[in-house]
Amino acid sequence: MAIGVLLKQVPDTTAKIGVSEGRVDETAVSKWSMSPYDEYALESALRLKEAGGEDVVAITCGPTRAAKMLTDAAAVGVDSLLHVLVDDLSALDSTQVQSILAAALGRADCDVVFCGKQAADTNAGSTGPGVALLLGASCVSHVSEVSPDGGGYLALRASTGGDERVQVSAPCIFAFDKGDEELRRPNVRGIMMAKKKAIETISPSDLGVSLDNSRVTVVSHTPPPEKPPGQKFEGAESVATVVGKLRDEANVI
Amino acid sequence: MAYEALDFYDIDALLTEEERMVRDMVRDWVDKEVIPNIEEACREGVFPDKWRVDLGEMGILGAPLKGYGCPGLSYIAYGLICQELERGDSGVRSFASVQGSLAMYPIWDFGSEEQKNHYLPGMATGELIGCFGLTEPDYGSNPGDMITRAEDKGDHYLLNGAKMWITNGTTADLAVVWAKLDGVIRGFIVEKDDPGFSAPEMTGKHSLKASVTSELVFQDCQIPKDRILPGVKGLKGPFSCLNNARYGISWGAVGAAQSCFDSAKEYALSRIQFGHPIASFQLIQNKLSWMLREITKAQLLAYHLGNKKDDGTWIPEQISLAKMNNVDIALEIARMSRDIHGANGILDEYPVMRHMANLESVKTYEGTHDIHNLILGRHITGIQSFTREP
Amino acid sequence: MDVTVIADSTADGLNPVTAQLVGAASSIGGTTTVLCPGGVGSSQASAISGVAKVISVEGDCFGTFEGGAWANALNSLATGELILAAASPRGRDIAASLAAIRKIPVIQDVTGLEAGMVVTRPIYSGKAIETSNVSTPCVITLRANAFDDAPEGGSADVGTVNQSADVGLAVKEALAKASERLDVTEADIIISGGRGMGDPSNFSHLNEVADIIGAAVGASRAAVDTWDEIPHSMQVGQTGKTVTPSLYIAVGISGAIQHLAGMKTSKYIVAINKDPDAPIFGVADYGIVATWEDALPVLKSELAKL
C-alpha cells in the first residue's frame, strides 16, 4: 500500500494568459507550477508518511513538461513518480481523466489519496470526488489538515456552518483546500536525489484505459470581456448602485 | 507576483535541470524571506539569524565544494545562487560568499584532513559561521605588507595584529586569518573563544547595512599548533579564496542589476507625467535599453566564466574582468534606476537606493575596481604597475 | 428536455442560486424536476416558477455531508438529460460524484448556457473564457448570480422519496467558524483604509464591513506609518503586500503610486474618497465621491441585504 498524491501542472497563478487563434497560448506561459491546492495536499501526504505512514507516490496526467513538476515533488521527499503521458488534457472529458487517475492509483496500490480541491487552470473540482467514486472510496473535500487516527484518519474540513473534524477510513481521498502548512522548501540534497529518481512514464492504454471520443469539445477560448471604463458616482446614496453593480455586473459579491 | 527574471538571451536554456532547481529554490527563498524583511534588517543593522538557518537548511553554503558534507554543485550553480541572493541584497550574498569561498574554501583546499572533518560539515549546515581576515586597517589593496604576525611558541602559536572590514566577524565561530610566520604569509584558524582574540563590530555604515562588518583584534592570541593551514604558503592562499569569491560577485552583481532594472521598468510604466507613462518617453527608453544591454552582456560574461571554472580552463584575469565589469554596470544601473524613479527613488519603498549603496562597497571589496584594471593592465603589457619598485 | 436540478441549501433552507438553476433550465426550454437533498427547502422549491415537480429526497445519509453518498442517494431520481447543480462547494462535489456514477461528463462553474449544450465558463481564474459543446446526458454546475432568478409563483407537486446510501465518514467535532481575521494576501475581498480614516479607531467600521462579506482589512502605508495601532502586516503597497483579490475597496486612500503598485491588479476596485480628484479614482472601476462617514453605513446595510 502507498499514499497517493494527484498533482497537476498549471500556469503559475501569477502568469499572464494569452489567447491566440481561439485557444489559450500555452507556449506563451512564462512559468508552470504545481497547482497551489495540490501543494497543500502534497505537504500533508509527506507529513502523514513521516507520522509512520506508507511511501508517497506522486501521480500526474499531462504532457511531457509535467515531468518537471514530478521532479520538484521528488526534491521535497516523494518516493516514487508516475507520469501518465497525455499530450492534450483539454481534449479529454472528466470521465476520461478520472478513469486514468483511478487506474494509475490502482497500479500504484494507493488506498489513501491526496489531491487539491480544484486545479488552478480549470478551477473545476471534479477530480477528487469523481476518482473516489470510481475507486469505491470516501472523498472528504475542502480539507485543511489530515492526521492518523487509530486505523483511520481525522480530517479537518470546511463545512457550511464552520469547520468540522471528520473521521474516515481507507480507502479515502482528501481533496485539499488551503492548509496551514505550506509545501516545504526543497534543499540541495533533495534536488540531487530527485535528479536520480526515475519517473515511470506510461500511456493511458498501458493502464487499460481506452480513450473513446471525448463528450466535451472545446469550441474556443476567448479573452475575458473588457471591463467597462471606470464609473464615478457622487454621494453616499450611490453606494447601493455600486453594490448592485458588484453583484450583477462584476459578479464578485 | 512570481518573479520573472530578465533573461534576454535565454541563458536559462543552457542550464541543467539541477542548476535550474537550485536557482528556483534560492529565488523563492529570496522572494519569501529576504525581500519582505530586508528594509527592517537594514534599519536595525542586523543579519537575521533565520537567514543563516535557512541558508544552511537549503544546503547551499560552500556550494561548489565536494565532500565533507559540502553540496558539490557546479560553479554555474554557485553563480546562480549568488545572483539570486544579491537580487535580494548584497549583504546576503556577502554572507554566503564569505562563508563558502573565503572560510570554507581555504580549509577545504589547504586544511589538514582533521581540520576538514572538524569544521566543514558544521559550516555547510550553517551551524558554524566563518569569516576571513586578510585586510588590515593600513593594508587593503596591498595585503603583502600586512602587519599581523604569528610566532611559533613551541606548543602554540601567538598572534598579534588587527584585521579590518571583516564580514561576519562578530558573529563568526571561527576566522581564517592570514598572518606572517617568519616573514611568510600563512593561514591560521582562530576560534571565537581563543584567548586574546576579539571581534568588535564596526558601525556607522551607509552600505551593506544588513551585513555584519567587524574588526578582528589579536593581542597575544594563543592558538594550538594544529590550527595552521598546512597546504599553502604566501599570498597564493588568500588570493585563491578571493578568486572564488570574486567569481561569485560577478554573478551577484547581475542579480542586483536585475532588481534595479525590474523596479525601474515597473515604475516607468506606472508613473504618469505630462499625461503619459514616463516609459513612453525616449530618454527613459534609452536608459532602459542601456540597462538591458549591459545586464545581458554581464550575464553572458558570468555564464561563460562559470563554464571555464567548471572545466578548469580559467585564468584569474578573466575573473578580474568579470568582477570589475559586472559590479561597475550594476552600480551604474542602480544610479540610473534611481534617476528614473525620481524623488521616489530615494525611498526605501524601492530597492534601488539600497542596492546602489551596497554596490559602492562591492565595487571596492574583493579587489577594488582599479586594482582589477591593473591586473588586466599587467596581463596585457606584461608590466606590473602596482608598485614603484621594479 | 428533462432537467434535474439539485437544490442548493443550508440547514436554513434554499440558497438563492437554486432559483437561478431553475431559471437557467427554463431558458433552454427544460422541464425541470428539483431534487431537495434531505428534504430541505422542498416547499420553497415548489413555489419557483417553471418547476414541474419537486422531489424531497430523505434518508439518514443526508445527516452528514459526503458528496459520494449524497450522489448515490440522489442517483436513481436524477434522470434528466441535463443535471444542474450550483457551483458551490457541496454542489460541485455532488455533481462530480453523480457524473462519475452515471459515467457522464461534468462541467463545473458555468456562467453561460445555451440550448444544444453550449456552455461557457471562466478558466485560469477568469483570465480566459472557454466555450465548449457537451453531449447530453451531462452534469453542469452554475456559478451563483451568473443567471437570472426564476420568478416566484410556481406551485409544483412535491413528492417524497426515501433513499439510503452508505456514508463513509463521521463528524467527530464541529468547530465554530474561525474568527481570526484573514490575511490580505489570502482574501478574495479586501477593504483597506488610508489616512483619510482620520483615526485608527475608525478602522472598526472597516472591520464591520469585512465581517459581513468575509473580507480582509488592509491599510495604506500612510495609515501604517501614522498610527501604531495599524500593523505593518496590514500594509498593501510597494513595501507591503501585493494583492490581487476579486474585489478591493479603498476607503480614504488617495492612491499614491506606491499604494497602487500593491493593488492595481485587483479584478475590481471600488474607491470611496471625498476628494473627487484623488488619483485612486484613476484605477477604480467604481468610484464613490463621499466621506467614509456617510458611505460606510450605507455599504454595511446594502451588503447585509445580499
UniProtKB/TrEMBL annotation, chain B:
Q: What EC number(s) has UniProt assigned to this enzyme?
A: 1.3.8.6
Protein keywords: FAD, Flavoprotein, Oxidoreductase, Transit peptide
Q: Where is the Acyl-CoA dehydrogenase/oxidase C-terminal domain?
A: 235-380
Coiled-coil segments: none
Record-level GO BP terms: fatty acid beta-oxidation using acyl-CoA dehydrogenase; fatty-acyl-CoA biosynthetic process
The chain positions of domain Acyl-CoA oxidase/dehydrogenase middle read: 131-221
- Family per UniProt? Belongs to the acyl-CoA dehydrogenase family.
Protein name per Swiss-Prot or TrEMBL: Glutaryl-CoA dehydrogenase (GCDH, gcdH)
* Species of origin: uncultured marine group II/III euryarchaeote KM3_14_H03
Taxonomic classification, please?
A: Archaea, Methanobacteriati, Methanobacteriota, environmental samples
Q: State the encoding gene.
A: GCDH
